[in-house]
Design goal:
Number of domains: 2
Strand order of the largest sheet: 3-4-9-8
Largest sheet: 4 strands, antiparallel
Radius of gyration: 23 Å
Helix content: 10-25%
Structural class: alpha+beta
Shape: flat
Order of helices and strands: HEHEEEEEEEE
CATH class of the largest domain: Mainly Beta
Strand content: 25-35%
Length: about 160
């Protein structure tokens, strides 16, 4: 193989590795990014409001998933909501958190210059590391953090298996 062919092959491998790395990063980031769909309550937005809100349709709802003993514990940062704003369910191996973050504005005349907070309806799908018993799940919302405790099913609990001789 000539030096030129080796160089070309090396560049192709490097491009493949970079592309694969970006794909992995995009996949991980896409799980945390959550799209907020505006919920209109009869309010007519000005073109300036629409432009400001266009960039605030996505938000990062940071999550932590932890296995602790016989439970899977999911924590999700969702500040500015009330506990009644959530709809939580388990579908297959995913925790589904739906909600609506409402913007309460008393002043209608001001214009936004920076709007980084997302408002509206959202849905976040969080993969669970083990099968869970959703009938015994508990959820708590305190200080902007939603904590969902999901007991693992009996099949998901680990046990040592002796090897017979």
């Amino acid at each position: 193989m000539s030096t030129l062919e080796q160089f070309r092959d090396g560049l192709q491998q490097m491009a493949h590795n970079i592309s694969e790395g970006w794909q992995h990063l995009r996949d991980r980031a896409s799980r945390a990014l959550t799209r907020f769909t505006p919920v209109r309550a009869g309010r007519v937005e000005t073109p300036a409001d629409q432009a400001a809100l266009a960039g605030a349709r996505w938000s990062l709802l940071s999550a932590e998933v932890e296995e602790r003993g016989n439970d899977v514990i999911v924590r999700l940062e969702v500040p500015g909501m009330d506990r009644e704003d959530f709809d939580i369910s388990v579908v297959d191996d995913m925790l589904v958190v739906r909600g609506e973050k409402r913007a309460e504005r008393e002043q209608q005349e001001g214009r936004f210059y920076i709007l980084e907070c997302a408002y509206g309806a959202f849905e976040r799908l969080i993969p669970l590391p083990a099968p869970v018993d959703e009938s015994r799940a508990k959820a708590r919302y305190r200080r902007g953090v939603l904590t969902v405790t999901l007991p693992k099913t009996t099949a998901a609990r680990s046990r040592r298996i002796e090897v017979a001789g």
